Amino acid sequence: MEIKYSDLLFLALIGLVLLILDRVYRxxxxxxxxxxxxxxxxxxxxxxxxxxxxxxxxVDEKQPALKPTTLPVxx
Length: 75
Prior knowledge:
75 residues; alpha+beta; 2 strands; 35% helix; 11% strand
């Protein structure tokens, strides 16, 4: 069985399209795990009381509680 360059090019093109669609989905629809994020920054509105700007998104000032784990955690 002989592999043609056109077949490899077609598979590479499909892979590239899938990577681009995945990236667009992650950026536009999920925003990496934040629920209904409010964007903040230098030339944007400030965050509401009780929140602060972190990585361009308003988040709670409280630190999240860590789940217990069997792995050693050092400060």
